[in-house]
C-alpha cells in the first residue's frame, strides 16, 4: 500500500480538469490521519479571517480534493475557526 506522500509525489503538479489547464499550485493539508481500517482523512484547520485573505485557497483546496482525495478514496475535512 502506498503512503500519502508517495501518492502525492507521483502525481504531477499541473491539473488538467475538464479540458482546462491550470497554473501549478502547491497545497498540503495540515495533517493526515490514517485509521486502523486503512481509511485516510486529510484535515485542514483555518481561521475565518485567514481563509478570506487567501483568495486562491479555495482553488488550491478544490484541486487537492479532485486530484488526490477523491481518486484515492480519502476523506477531506475542513475546520473553520471563527
Kindly list the characteristics that best describe this protein.
82 residues, two-stranded antiparallel sheet, 5 strands, 28% strand
Describe the structure in brief.
The chain has helices spanning 4-10, 48-53, 57-72, and strands at 16-17, 20-21, 31-34, 40-47, 75-81. By secondary structure, it is α+β, with helices and mostly antiparallel strands.
Can you characterise this structure?
The protein is α+β, with helices and mostly antiparallel strands and 82 residues long. It has one domain. The protein is 35% helix and 28% strand. The protein has helices at residues 4-10, 48-53, 57-72; strands spanning 16-17, 20-21, 31-34, 40-47, 75-81. A hairpin with a 5-residue loop joins strand 3 and strand 4. The termini are far apart. The model has no long low-confidence stretch (mean pLDDT 80).
Number of contiguous helices: 3
| Structure classification | alpha+beta
Query: Gyration radius, to the nearest Å?
Result: 13 Å
Main beta-sheet strand count, sense and barrel state:
3 strands, mixed
Number of domains: 1
Beginning-to-end CA distance, first to last residue: 38 Å
Shape: globular
Order of helices and strands: HEEEEHHE
How many beta strands in the DSSP annotation? Answer: 5
How much of the residues is beta strand, in percent?
25-35%
**Helical percentage:** 25-40%
Could you give the order of strands across the largest sheet?
A: 3-4-5
**Low-confidence sequence ranges:** none
The whole-number mean of residue pLDDT values reads 80
Amino acid at each position: 500500500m502506498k503512503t500519502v506522500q508517495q501518492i502525492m509525489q507521483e502525481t504531477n503538479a499541473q491539473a488538467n480538469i475538464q479540458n482546462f489547464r491550470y497554473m501549478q499550485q502547491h497545497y498540503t493539508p495540515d495533517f493526515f490521519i490514517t485509521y486502523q481500517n486503512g481509511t485516510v482523512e486529510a484535515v485542514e484547520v483555518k481561521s475565518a479571517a485567514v481563509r478570506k485573505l487567501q483568495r486562491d485557497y479555495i482553488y488550491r483546496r478544490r484541486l487537492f480534493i479532485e486530484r488526490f482525495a477523491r481518486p484515492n478514496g480519502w476523506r477531506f475535512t475542513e475546520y473553520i475557526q471563527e
